[in-house]
Amino acid sequence: SLYRVSYDLPELASWNISVGAFGLGGSTTGTGTKLFENTASTLATSAILATHETQANGFDMQASGAIAGMSSQIVVNHVTNAKFRSFNTATLAAIGTAQDSKATSIEAQFMPVAKFGVRAGRMIYSDMLANGDYHTVSLGAVYNYADNIRFSLERSDIDYSNIATADFQETLVQALIGF
Question: Hey, CA dihedral for 73, 156, 3, 128, is it positive or negative?
Fold first, then answer.
């Protein structure tokens, strides 16, 4: 199941503001022990029928307007809970590691000129079962080739502050073509 509700507030000082709430939930059953690994080799070698359940909900806000004459957008998301678990369908025994987490992110985009913009974001993720957090800081650039074609490049630094996992960086290159 999936739901999304939102409300556009009346314009405030030339800013458009939208607030919303969202949720999703569901399950899938397969013959592998991991969610997206039902490959031909897994199907041939696995005797386990596993059920994977997920549930998440939260709220968000988006504001768009102008700052110092630049088209600007600010987005805030808060996932109040995200739960995932897998279990053996026959015995109901847990498989793998259950997840119970929450996250908050804020992202800002500024367009100094109509075709080119910069982005900055920060996310804080909390794993409620492992008592671990991580923080992500992202910086990027956006190029609007046309009304329906956009290219972006983003670099993220992921800091696992109190989880026994090495910090790392990643780069995202994206092309968006709208129809």
Answer: negative
